[in-house]
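Following the same procedure, the fold was encoded as C-alpha cells, giving this record:
***
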Amino acid sequence: MSVLVYVEQVEGKFKKSVFEAVSYAKAIADQQGTSLSAISIGSVADSELYELGKYGASKVLKVEADQLKNFVNQAYASVIAEAAKKEGANIVVLSNSFSGKGLAPRIAVKLKAGLVDGAVELPTTDGGFSVKKTAFSGKAFAIATLTSENKVIALNPNAFGVKENAASVAIETFSPEVKSSDLSAIVKEIVRATNKVSLPDAEVVVSGGRGLKGPENWGMVEELADLLGAATACSKPVSDADWRPHSEHVG
C-alpha cells in the first residue's frame, strides 16, 4: 500500500496549496511507513515536476492526454482513481480547492473509499483512522473516522503548511484510457476573472467588514491589498449583503 497525491496545475505551474498537499501526503506516508507518489494532469514541464521532490514525492505520474488539457471533473477523477489502482495506493490526498471539492467525492466513489473533506490535521491512527476536519462552514470542527480500506482526504489550504522533506524523484509517463463517457462536458477555454492573489494562496490578507458602510468604499481595501501583494477578504455579513463575492468570506 502507498499514498497518492493529486497535484493541481494552473497554466503549467504549481501553487503553494499543491506543495502543502504534497507535504501533508508525505507526512501520512511516513506515518504509514510507505512511499508517496504524485499525479499531475496537463502540460507541466519536467523542471516543475521535479520541484515536488523537495516536499517528499518519490515518483510523479505525468499525464498529458490532449482531452485532458483543461480540467474536466469526471475524466480527471477517473484518471486519478486509475493511478491509485496502478500504484496500489489506499490513501489519496488532494487540496480542498474549488476543483478538489468536485474531484474528492468522485474519486471516493470510484475507489469505494471513505472521504474526509476539509481536513486540518494529520490522521490519528490509535485504534483506527480519524481525521480532524472543519464543519458548519468553518465555524466548528469534527472528527471523522474512516473504516474503509481506501481513503480520500481533501486538505484545507493553509491548514498544514509547506514542509520540505527532500526525496529523489522519478518522473513516469502515465497514459490511462480516457473514456468518451467521462468527456460529456468539455472545457474549451478558461478565462481568468482576475490576476489578483487568491485567498488560498495568500501570505497576506486585507479584510473589511460593515464598518466600511457600503461597497462603494471598498476601493481603499483593494488599493492596500495591491500595495501589499495581498488578497482581499470580507466578513460574512458583507458577503451576505452582496457587497463582496462569497469567495472572499473569511469570517
